[in-house]
Structures are given as C-alpha cells and as structure tokens.
Design goal:
single chain; Aminopeptidase; seven-stranded mixed β-sheet; 381 residues
C-alpha cells in the first residue's frame, strides 16, 4: 500500500498512454468515453480522471465527478408535493456541492478498474485519499464540498469496503440495478418469447401489434447530427419528468458519444408518420450490453407502447449478438422485470462534511430519498 500513489487529471489529453490497457475491462473508463464526458458533460458537472500507480507503473484508473446543483433549474418535475419542496430546499442550501467518486450518470460498478489484484483496504484508502485531495482542490477555489459519495458497489465489494476506510460512512441502497442474465438455451429471439408464460406472450403480442406502424432504424452519425435537436428534446422530456435528477445531459452529448465511440455506441430511432418519436441507446461493453439514455414522445409512447417495445428490441439485440447480460439500470423496475430483468441491489457510501449534519445523515437520507413501490414480475414458465 505504501508504494501506491495517485494523480488526478483534469483533461484526457494528459492521461498516460497505457490508460486503456488498465481500463480494458470497462468501456466506461476508457479514453473514448472519458472524452465524451470531457466534451459534453452536463453543464453542472466537472469530471476528474484518476491514475493510480505502483511506484511508476500505472495499475489502476478511476473517475470522479463534481456536481453543482445550484446550476440546475429543476431537480425533476414529476412529483409535486411538500416533501419534494423541502427536499429541493435542503439540496440547494446544504448539499449543492456534491463530489462523487464514481460515475453518477450511469448505474453499475464503473468507478474504478485495476490491472492487478488489489485488496480492499488499499482500494478504500486510495478512494478516500482522492476525495480528500479533491475537497482541498475546491476549497482553494472557494467552493466547499458538502457531500462526498462513493457510488455503486455490488454486495461483496460493499461488505469488504465497510471493513476499512468506509466503516464510518453511511451505506445506502436506492433503486436496484435491473440486470437481465441471458440464458444459453435461447438461441434465437423466438425461443426467448416462447419461454414466456401465456400472460407475457400475450403482452408481447399486444405490444407488437400496437407497434406495427412504427419504423425502427439504427442512426448513423449523419442521422444523429441532423436529428440532434429532436433527440435531445425527446430525452429532456423524459428526464425532466423523472422524480429526481442531479444533472441534465448537454445538447451535444449523443452526437459526441456517437463520434467518439462509433459502432460500440448505437442509437436506434423510432419513426411514426416520418417523424422521430423516440430513440434508445446501447453501449457494447465486452460481453455486457449496457443500456444508456432514451427518449420518447409521450403521446405516441402511450398509443404505440414505445417503451416496452424498446425493451424487447434491446433484448433481441442482446440475444442475437450473444451477449451474456443486459444492464437495464434503475427506474421502471416493474416493466423491466416483465421482460426478464431481475433486481440487483447496489450500495453506495455517503457522508456530509458538516459533522452535525453528518451525525444524522442516515435519517436525513432515508427521508429525502424518493421511495418507489413496485411489484416484481416473473414472466417465464
């Protein structure tokens, strides 16, 4: 552990040449994706890229993000109630400067990657030291970090991290990551559909019947450039109607992503009466298919069951291209479970830099975090 050091970079141009070799297991830590963040991060986000060294050898990479919630005009407009008003007031006044060690834009354990086996005492110390250095960095700029959060760890990792530097931090679990482990016995999409119970085969048939007049096509970079405003407006409609948001993507985000990652990042457009009414995105991450942001016209979505059909289409792509699993992320858990995804709970760790507030962070967090009631569906025979 004593031989390990780290360096924090503010631009991808300065990253070590062998960065991708260390980050090879995770597309979300490779230079192309980090360049997407650098060129098209949300307006209230600043990203930092962390190189971890053993002596002079790069052995680990990590990501950190600073969010200034004061720059948001809205945290989400779906829920309008007293609790939401109180929550927004508290966030603006006591939690507006948030430091994430990890990636707040996606769900999953995407915060760090190492090229060698590392013990959790070392990992937790490095992440904690990085957070402290970034707090000092912002303090010198006259900005006080209110909240530090270490984001998204699967159960085994969270359990180990709690034994070390994270033992005094509040562990939280929010909405689960909906993960679909694709079964080897499904050699085709038809075999997947035939494994449904009658209720869910009927759901599939009903959705496809309503969807019949919608045309789906994979968008080229030229298509994305020409449809950029429409794509963003469809995304923004969905995002602002979420129960809670800490960021909104920049208007050039999807175009930048497509240019940087090319065929590994796919955007599918949904057209009705020659008009783009929806889109979904996926990222190829080794044998894992990562779903990303989507958007749709609410009026067409209801009539054509766009969202459910998007889930079927992503599943079909995963099966036909031999992926092992699809990560559907958080939100809309019930409908995602109806096509086969299962909830995997992940932990995060959080603390407030004000000692008095931090003393009650567990109670505050539990009261302010939006709760979602949902019923898991079991679609297979």
């Amino acid at each position: 552990m004593d031989n390990n050091t780290f360096k924090i970079y503010t631009t991808t141009d300065l990253l070590p040449e062998n960065w991708n070799e260390v980050a090879i297991e995770n597309e979300f830590l490779q230079k192309n994706y980090l360049s997407v963040l650098e060129k098209s991060a949300p307006v209230n986000m600043q990203c930092f890229y962390i190189g971890i060294f053993e002596k002079n050898e790069l052995i680990g990479v990590a990501l950190a993000q600073f969010l200034d919630l004061n720059k948001l005009t809205s945290f989400g407009e779906r829920d309008k109630c007293l609790k939401t008003t109180i929550r927004n007031f508290i966030f603006r006044n006591f939690a507006s400067h948030v430091l994430f060690i990890g990636n707040n834009m996606i769900t999953g354990q995407n915060g760090y990657s190492f090229s060698k086996e590392m013990d959790f005492a070392c990992i937790s110390k490095i992440m904690n030291d990085c957070a402290n250095e970034l707090k000092d960095y912002f303090a010198k700029q006259g900005k006080k970090i209110h909240i530090v959060s270490f984001k998204d760890f699967y159960e085994k990792c969270a359990k180990e991290l709690k034994k070390h530097e994270f033992k005094n931090y509040h562990e939280f679990n929010i909405q689960p990551n909906m993960i679909f482990n694709l079964q080897n016995r499904w050699k085709s999409f038809d075999e997947y559909i035939n494994s449904f119970t009658k209720k869910y085969r009927d759901q599939y048939k009903r959705a496809r019947k309503k969807f019949d007049s919608v045309i789906v096509k994979e968008l080229t970079i030229t298509d994305v450039e020409s449809e950029n405003d429409r794509i963003y407006n469809l995304y923004y409609h969905v995002a602002k109607n979420a129960p809670f948001n800490t960021f909104f993507l920049s208007k050039n985000h999807f175009e930048t992503f497509k240019k940087q990652c090319d065929n590994r990042f796919k955007i599918y457009g949904y057209y009705f009466e020659n008009k783009l009414v929806g889109f979904h995105t996926i990222l190829v991450n080794g044998k894992v298919l990562e779903t990303y942001f989507l958007g749709y016209d609410e009026t067409v979505q209801k009539d054509k069951m766009l969202y459910l059909n998007m889930l079927y289409n992503m599943t079909q792509f995963g099966i036909e291209n031999n992926f092992e699993k699809i990560l559907f992320g958080r939100t809309a858990m019930e409908i995602k479970s109806s096509i086969g995804a299962e909830p995997i709970y992940m932990s995060g760790f959080i603390y407030h830099t004000n000692k008095l507030i931090n003393k009650y962070i567990d109670k505050l967090f539990d009261r302010l975090e939006p709760k979602v009631a949902w019923q898991q569906r079991h679609p297979f025979k």
